[in-house]
Amino acid sequence: MRRPAPDDRPVALTIAGSDSGGGAGIQADLKTMEAHGVFGTSAITAATAQNTTGVYGSHVLPVEEIEGQIDAVVEDFDVGGIKTGMLATAPVIELVAEKVAASDAPAAVDPVMVATSGDRLLDPDAEDAYEDLIAESAVVTPNADEAEVLTGEELETTADARAAGETLVKLGADAALVKGGHLDAEGEARDAVVDVLVTDDGAERFEHPRIDTDATHGSGCTLSSAIAARLARGEPLRDAVAGGVRFMERAVRYHYDVGEGPGAVNHGAVRTELAERAGTVEAVEAVLDRIADADARMLAGDGGLQLVGATPYAERPAEVAAVEGGVGATRTGLRANRGVRFGVAPRAAEVVLGAREVDPAVQFGATIRATDAVDAVESLGWRSVVYGPPAARATGENQLRDAVEDVIAGVDETPRVLVGEREHSVAVLATEHDRLAERLLALADAIESGD
């Protein structure tokens, strides 16, 4: 008989409606909590018939049934965080406000009123009932339309969002996160989304690029449940919000292409990224082994060679594997200075990440600093583009990534090679590690032939 190895983890409770389509509601909340390493429990307020195209029916459960679910959870589990979603009617909202007030767990209140499809999920006469629940919340997370209903204030800009957040904090919320997906940010491009977090200490903006997709159904549920899960883990509110925004952004960008509608939010993107890391390291090592076995030392040139591999959902250099210290040439062949690790080659990683902004299928790359490599690319006749500093975005943390994104966005097809005009470097791109190895070996032959 084997000894058990129990997993002791925080517990969170979601009180929300069920989405038969799986993209929002209870289903989204539990997936998100699981992705955060939190044990998710639930109290279902309503059963909805919906999918990626809309809501086709809704049945609100009796209040006593909802209360029974909540009581069953809190009597057995040490709940560390609460998330509320679709509450549908005034009696349900009033019940949940009482239960949240009786709990020591911080609550993230998502005042769900209308689905992304435009279908209404809250009785109009229940809107005023939210005031007591807001007063008990650690953070309330309305979108612009919901904030207008709750505050009676018109929202058009991020300044309006801050004013609405201040009103919600005055109603008793510890904090208000007003989501700005449909707002204008004064003096900023419309391709930026700015969410505004307001507390008694002031306001903070969380800005991220707008994702060109309509697959946002469930994004609000995902964000609020991510915050609740992080609060259950003991994170400070500001960190929970920042982490929740990042989680939600990735879940939308890498959404599932399912159903006849826009698709479904990918609540497992972060966990999949982590799960793919070991395989990505092995892939980079396989490329290194192939070019080393072929004695392709000419690829190292005078400035060395760097091999990188991004996980399928990589967004940051810390999620890109590379040979630490790069690959150099010796009299006996190629030699890796150290092993393959994540986050050790930020510049080479930024090149691949910039390409992924346009073509997310790109996962692997190699950067070669050698004039001979530039000449060899021309002799091979490969699709290539020259990149330099970003013309329109010359400041910020991701200048190199922006430069690569800009130049690839300007051509019809993702090139095999990028040529750095200032660094006399060549960056070879590929969607698969085997293809990268083949291209590098072909390039090595061309360099040698040029000699």
From TrEMBL:
Q: Which GO terms describe its cellular component?
A: cytosol
GO MF assignments: ATP binding; hydroxymethylpyrimidine kinase activity; phosphomethylpyrimidine kinase activity
Q: Which residues form the Thiamine-phosphate synthase ThiN domain?
A: 284-421
Residue span, Pyridoxamine kinase/Phosphomethylpyrimidine kinase domain: 19-266
Does Transferase show up as a keyword for this record? yes
Give the matching InterPro entries.
Aldolase_II/adducin_N_sf (IPR036409), HMP/HMP-P_kinase_dom (IPR004399), PM/HMP-P_kinase-1 (IPR013749), Ribokinase-like (IPR029056), ThiN (IPR019293)
- Where on the tree of life does the source sit, at the highest rank? Archaea
Q: Report the transmembrane regions from the record.
A: none
Q: Which GO terms describe its biological process?
A: thiamine biosynthetic process
Q: Name one Pfam family in it.
A: ThiN
**Keyword set for this entry?**
ATP-binding, Kinase, Nucleotide-binding, Transferase
> PANTHER family attached here?
HYDROXYMETHYLPYRIMIDINE_PHOSPHOMETHYLPYRIMIDINE KINASE THI20-RELATED, PHOSPHOMETHYLPYRIMIDINE KINASE
Q: What is this protein called?
A: Bifunctional hydroxymethylpyrimidine kinase/phosphomethylpyrimidine kinase
* Origin species: Natronoarchaeum mannanilyticum
Q: What is the lineage of its organism?
A: Archaea, Methanobacteriati, Methanobacteriota, Stenosarchaea group, Halobacteria
